[in-house]
Amino acid sequence: MKHVYQGHGIKGIKYHWSQVSVFTRQSKDKQFVLFVDCPKAVVDQIVRTCLSGSSRSVGLAGHVTSACRDPFIWHALLIGGLETEYESDYWGLRDIVRKWERERHGEPDFPLLHDLGRHLIHAKEIFEVATNTINSIVHHHRSLYDEFQATGMIAAEEQKSRQKLFRIIQEKLYISDKDMTAKQARATSLNERLHNEINLAYHVVTQKSNQLSINLASIARRDNATMKALALIGVLYLPGTFISGIFGMSFFNYNPQGNNNNNNSGTDWMMSDKFWIYWTITIPVTIFTVMLWAMLDETVEMYKYFMNKVKVTLQDKWNERPRSNRQKDEEEASTNDPSMMLKV
């Protein structure tokens, strides 16, 4: 059995395993029964059943003193006691799953949810094994009773009491089998509920991510509109700035009429005959800058393509080598590399 319970803190799922074993030895006039690693609550319940009976084992208490007549009476008593433990294990898992169902508004902890799914898988396996074990006990109990009848080991005066005890044990095992089957179905349903919570958490996270992407796209569109506005303003002002920059150079001189201090013969506008120097320098530098940018961009792309080809070629050559040689080279590299030695 696997006992899962909610511990303290956020990462607080605790569990422990317990395995109950029973050893019985039957003789003609007595029976030896040994319970190993049996929970104290189950032991107390079996003792109470032996003394006065219990709600889960009605009809068995009166036959415990003559248990040597049917060795399977102890199996029925043990199963009746363990049903409470299995029920407690199921509700421990159910409470944890229900806690996550009620706290959907919080941030999902996917590792913890998947870890809880692992415990539910174990619970389904445990209930299935328990159901198969009960079915096996029912089968062997019926086989033993048939063998007793076929071999005449049951005295005539004990036929009715043996038959009554057989029916009581069979009925108890049948009820336990149905109860365990129901627990297995509930564990399966609980596992599906957990999967539903995990899928919902994934959808919620995906929806939040999509909403964040939409918000980022909206911000990007606003930024794009702002950049377009700035670019339009730049386009509107750039021609005037360029023209004013040209006419503001020392190649041009403007003097209003009546201001002849510069000996320009009274003209209002003069342009230097060296203005061609500006164009001689500007045009080649602009062309050189554009060509240099194009060459650098192409060089980077060619370098990336060349390095990828070299990497693929070396990988193919390495894979073509025999496996023994590759292992030998890897061992030598790890021996000569101090960092690899430290890792080892």
Automatic annotation (TrEMBL):
InterPro entries, A to Z: CorA_TM1_TM2, MgTranspt_CorA/ZnTranspt_ZntB
Residue span of region Disordered: 320-344
Cell compartments where the protein resides: Membrane
Stretches that traverse the bilayer: 229-255, 275-296
Keyword vocabulary terms for this entry: Membrane, Transmembrane, Transmembrane helix
Keyword hit for Transmembrane helix: yes
Pfam families referenced in this protein's UniProt entry, alphabetically: CorA
Stated name of the protein: CorA family metal ion transporter
Lineage: Eukaryota, Fungi, Dikarya, Ascomycota, Pezizomycotina
GO cellular component: membrane
Cell division keyword on record: no
SUPFAM superfamilies recorded: Magnesium transport protein CorA, transmembrane region
Listed Gene3D superfamilies: Magnesium transport protein CorA, transmembrane region
GO molecular function: metal ion transmembrane transporter activity
